[in-house]
């Protein structure tokens, strides 16, 4: 009998997690199936609570599992045993989900071999637990939409999010400049210092981005050709205003629950492009080998000290309610990690 949450999750661009009757998810004992053929018995070690996980519970995400479902899309587990036809994994290996909706908020489970990707064990546990969604999203957005060169700049909102922190670090490794926009808050200086310690070149509040003096930044760095939007509404409009002609804004979330609005003049006279990104769709369009290559690239950055896990708060699985409630509070910069 194994402890497991009964609600599922998927990865990709989140909407803002709004309060739910979070008593709906519950812990339940489930029987493990026998390990046969291509089966892999996995003991889960840690799994984060992402905004997309809450969206799944709310029923307003792009992928919804059949109910009842186990919660959690992301996490790190260790192989306990394998079936007779398993060739890529062995007991002791670390594994992460290969695609969305695996259900990681549980102590252990039996999965098929193709549902898992083996990763190196020489990276920190929190980095491994948060590897498969936010850093992957950050890397793909930085390299897939504009051919950026060292010295080019990128502007983003929600810069304190998991993706935002990964963007700062990966961009720094690629020798790109970042202009990072966050919501004003009581501890804004503490947040600014933390993001700059990660490699952020500039950190601005939403209000500071709107004042004319902000343009002095672009005396030192070129106008950004890439904007990364996880908010929508006025925030995304301000990102567009600061893009270089011919630049691209990529939207991967909508935390403000407001549409992206682009003026006709920006589209015509600056020839700006509006794109979207969803990691789940990227995985559908690419092979598992390509995803594994992406994971190994990120692991190299972690080993080199160029990519760390976001600020995390570890919560025992049995206290999942505490983690869910914390994940929907405003101005929380610490990712909740369920530990098994």
Description:
Residues 25-338 form the Enoyl reductase (ER) domain. Keywords: Fatty acid biosynthesis, Fatty acid metabolism, Lipid biosynthesis, Lipid metabolism, Mitochondrion, NADP, Oxidoreductase, Transit peptide. It is an enzyme of class 1 (oxidoreductase). It is found in: Mitochondrion. It comes from Microtus ochrogaster. Mean pLDDT is 92; it is low at 1-12. The chain is globular, with a radius of gyration of 20 Å. The protein starts with a strand and ends with a strand. The strands form 3 sheets. Strands 3, 4, 5, 6, 7, 14 and 15 form a 7-stranded mixed beta sheet that branches. The chain has 340 residues and is of the alpha/beta class. It has helices at residues 51-58, 125-129, 134-144, 162-173, 188-198, 206-210, 233-241, 264-269, 279-285, 288-303, 320-327; strands at 2-5, 27-30, 39-48, 76-82, 94-97, 108-112, 116-119, 153-156, 177-182, 202-205, 226-229, 248-251, 273-276, 312-316, 335-339. The chain folds into 2 domains: 2-133 and 293-339, Medium-chain alcohol dehydrogenases, catalytic domain (Quinone Oxidoreductase, Chain A, domain 1, Alpha-Beta Complex); 146-276, Rossmann fold (3-Layer(aba) Sandwich).
């Amino acid at each position: 009998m194994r402890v497991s949450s009964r609600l599922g999750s998927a990865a990709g661009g989140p909407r803002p997690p709004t309060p739910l009757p979070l008593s709906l998810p519950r812990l339940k004992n489930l029987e493990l199936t026998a390990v046969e053929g291509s089966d892999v018995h996995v003991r889960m070690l840690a799994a984060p609570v992402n905004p997309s996980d809450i969206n799944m519970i709310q029923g307003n995400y792009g992928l919804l599992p059949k109910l009842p479902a186990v919660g959690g899309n992301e996490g790190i587990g260790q192989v306990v045993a394998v079936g007779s036809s398993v060739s890529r994994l062995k007991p002791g290996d670390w594994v992460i989900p290969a695609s969305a909706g695996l259900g990681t908020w549980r102590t252990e489970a039996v999965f098929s071999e193709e549902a898992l990707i083996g990763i190196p064990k020489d990276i920190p546990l929190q980095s491994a637990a948060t590897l498969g969604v936010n850093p992957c999203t950050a890397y793909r957005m930085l390299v897939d939409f504009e051919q950026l060169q060292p010295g080019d700049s990128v502007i983003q909102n929600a810069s304190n999010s998991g993706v935002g922190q990964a963007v700062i670090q990966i961009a720094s490794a690629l020798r790109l400049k970042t202009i990072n926009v966050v919501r004003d808050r009581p501890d804004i200086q503490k947040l600014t210092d933390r993001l700059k310690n990660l490699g952020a070149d500039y950190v601005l509040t939403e209000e500071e981005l709107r004042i004319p003096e902000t343009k002095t930044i672009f005396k030192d760095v070129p106008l950004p050709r890439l904007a990364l939007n996880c908010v929508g509404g006025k925030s995304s409009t301000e990102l567009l205003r600061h893009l270089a002609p011919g630049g691209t804004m990529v939207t991967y979330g909508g935390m403000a629950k407001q549409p992206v609005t682009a003026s006709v003049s920006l589209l015509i006279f600056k020839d700006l492009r509006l794109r979207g990104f969803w990691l789940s769709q990227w995985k559908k369009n690419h092979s598992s080998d390509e995803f594994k290559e992406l994971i190994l690239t990120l692991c190299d950055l972690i080993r080199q000290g160029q990519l760390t896990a976001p600020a995390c708060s570890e919560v025992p699985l049995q206290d999942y309610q505490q983690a869910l409630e914390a994940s929907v509070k405003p101005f929380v910069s610490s990712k909740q990690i369920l530990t098994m």
